[in-house]
Specification:
Strand content: 5-15%
Mean pLDDT: 89
CATH topology of one domain: Cytochrome p450
CATH class of one domain: Mainly Alpha
Strand order of the largest sheet: 3-4-10-7-5
Distance between the termini: 63 Å
Helix content: 40-55%
CATH superfamily of one domain: Cytochrome P450
Structural class: alpha+beta
Low-confidence stretches: 1-10
CATH architecture of one domain: Orthogonal Bundle
Length: 467
């Protein structure tokens, strides 16, 4: 039987679980999607729960309620305060920490590199670095593909941001970024209670040391670019030249925080999405072969532009993001009391759109629990029913870039490899910081690797100019 609505500052929250907060928190860390499914089954598409260290949270998945949250322009609902737990990694000046006018100012500066011709110019580098990754796959022996996906996407974002060709600079940046992300992947570090620094004697202390080592290289590269005036077709060059409405350049500390945000958000999330896409494709061999045929029809060396137009490829990427969104939900904090879904919520309360539950609604997605590679072919879906990148004024600035990258990587994988799952069946999930990944990294076997072929033509690579 559903619990009665609880009270906060005299205002009602929707019903939610009555188990101890410690138990709900444990399950949120260990099995967030299972927990969300159980709570929806019990309470419907609007419920609440309390996670240790955070305010009580109201969770919705009905598209009408999602629309109300995403339609807010930041006057009533704030995201920056909800994201504060990521500040030890991203920094206090990251776009994810900002709200209101400051957030809009940052978005205006950060958006141009991820859209239009500039974004498409990265296609050749994406294909090249994916080929490098495929060349390193072991043949005939099982391996976890999530690791190689992380390496490929990290090298892509490092090339895109800094313009580094493969070499010592790239290896140093990749190594330091990997160290930060490996230490930060421990889910309990998301909780403020675990963010205490005892140097090398605490997980958070070791994480802070790794962040400082990465910062040393970031600030060094920023200083070198400012001193030498070196510029290229990369994101750092664009941000160094960017000015706000008052004509002021971005300060070094803010630039550092935005670079780290792009490194993290442009790497781990895409690697996880690609891993899940491969899980679904390899579990449906006929769909894998259909996708291979679509890519093969482009010729031996298709351009990035041709690959990006593949309808089935685009649908597969979106369907993978629908079935297992890499983050469970997106939250907002109320600046003032607000009525939502029939509940009067107090200032300081958190409301969250459950991406996972919104993507499993049968009304929007018939047979929602099944993988349908053609689900998005020729169809336009509401932004309040398909929200892997959030929505409204807070929608991920890298959405177009991430989908473009997924298509480049998947196209190379289906064209050059005969992969199979080491074993079929359900895949256990595990939380890595904010993302949800296969617990075993998705173990696969490579039976055949085909030769690489460079695209016939493409836009300019962002590499080389400033290496």
């Amino acid at each position: 039987m559903a619990a009665k609505a609880t009270l906060c500052s005299g205002m009602a929250f929707p019903p939610g679980p009555t188990q101890p907060t410690a138990w709900i928190t444990y399950r949120w860390v260990r099995e967030p999607y299972t927990l969300l499914e159980e709570l929806e089954e019990r309470f419907g598409d609007t419920f609440s729960m309390k996670i240790a260290g955070f305010p009580r949270m109201m969770i919705v998945s009905n598209p009408d309620h999602v629309r109300e949250i995403f339609s807010d322009d930041g006057e009533t609902l704030e995201a920056g305060r909800v994201n504060r737990t990521l500040a030890p990694l991203l920094g206090d000046r990251s776009v994810l920490m900002a709200d209101g006018r400051d957030h809009l100012r940052k978005r205006k500066i950060l958006l141009p590199p991820f859209h239009g011709e500039r974004m498409q110019a990265y296609g050749r580098a994406m294909l090249e670095l994916t080929d490098d990754g495929i060349d390193a796959f072991p043949v005939g022996a099982p391996f976890a593909i999530h690791g190689p996906m992380q390496d490929i996407t990290l090298r892509i974002i490092v090339r895109t941001i800094f313009g580094f060709e493969e070499g010592p600079q790239t290896e140093k940046m990749v190594a330091r970024t990997k160290r930060v992300l490996e230490l930060g992947a421990w889910a309990p570090l998301l909780f403020p209670l675990m963010q205490f620094d005892l140097g090398r004697f605490s997980p958070f202390g070791r994480f802070r040391i790794a962040v400082a080592e990465a910062d040393e290289m970031l600030y060094g590269e920023i200083a070198r670019r400012r001193r030498d005036g070196a510029r290229g077709p990369d994101i750092l060059s664009m941000l160094l030249d960017a000015k706000d409405d008052a004509g002021r350049p971005m300060p070094d500390a803010e630039l550092r925080d935005e670079l780290v945000t792009l490194l993290v958000a442009g790497h781990e999330t895409t690697a996880t999405a690609l891993t899940w896409a491969m899980r679904w494709m390899l579990d449906a061999p006929a769909a894998f072969e259909e996708l291979r045929a679509e890519v093969a029809a482009l010729g031996d060396a298709p351009t990035p532009e041709a690959i990006a137009k593949c309808a089935l490829l685009d649908s597969v990427a979106r369907e993978a993001l629908r079935l297992v969104p890499v983050i469970p939900l997106v939250g907002r904090m109320l600046r003032a009391p607000k009525k939502l879904a029939g509940y009067e919520l107090p200032a300081g309360a958190v409301v969250a759109c459950s991406i996972y539950l919104a993507h499993r609604r049968e009304a929007a997605y018939p047979h929602a629990d099944s993988f349908d590679p053609r689900r998005f072919v020729g169809k336009k879906v509401s932004a309040y029913e398909f929200l892997p990148f959030g929505g409204g004024v807070r929608r991920c600035i890298g959405m177009a870039f991430a989908l473009y990258e997924m298509k480049m990587v998947l196209a190379r994988l289906v064209a050059r490899t005969d992969l199979r799952l080491e074993r079929r069946g359900p895949v256990a999930m595990v939380r890595r910081s904010i993302t949800i990944t296969p617990a075993d990294g998705l173990r696969v076997v490579l039976d055949v690797r085909r030769p690489r072929r460079a695209p016939e033509s493409a836009g300019a690579s962002p590499g080389g100019a400033v290496a």
